[in-house]
Design goal:
- The protein is of the alpha+beta class and about 200 residues long.
- Helices cover about 20% and strands about 35% of the residues.
- The protein folds into two domains: about 10-105, Alpha-Beta Plaits; about 110-190.
- The chain has helices spanning about 25-35, 75-80, 120-135, 170-175, and strands at about 10-15, 20, 45, 55, 60, 65-70, 85-90, 90-105, 110-115, 140-150, 155-165, 190.
- The strands form three sheets. Strands 3-6-1-8-7 form a five-stranded antiparallel beta sheet.
Amino acid sequence: MSTLKVEMIDLVFDLRGETLPLDYPFALWEELARLAPGLAESEDVGVLPLKVAENKEFALLPKRTKLVLRLPASLSGVAANLSGAQLDISASVLSLGEVKRREIQAHPTLHAQLAAGGADELEFMESVQAHFSALEISANTICGRRRTLSDGRQSISGYSLVVHDLKPEASILLQSVGMGEGRRFGCGIFMPYKVISDLE
């Protein structure tokens, strides 16, 4: 099993806001990097997708939504300074409240909303297997639907992916390193997933 070069943690921020544009991940990262420039110096920093309710026009923020940054423990001080900040996302304003440090926990089933790569499903799954082989991870996978994240200036395409039957060490490793490009925009970041059936 491959070992991590750096210790990764989650920083969980209380979040206040009402709505966001559907392509919010790009603008959200720009604001985070503006307020805490040190985050942009590491390619390991990731922003977990927000838990939102989407319609055709915007994303609605439930009251208990949290902003979670997955990053090297060495950057926790830089990121923690974001507590109390206001983020301007297009016509929306997000307020960041208290922050808590959360260790990454092992879960046998993980889910990535969008893992980048592959012009088609076959090519994508080949890249998944190559990535897992490099990490010495053995697990079963379920490929979901193709997705594209775009703000008109840049776009990332790939598939949603469920990984199950993970051993504890492999689960923590996969959550820490992710897969593919776009970690800053919530892509390739794996989160606990409770139900394998009823995939998107």
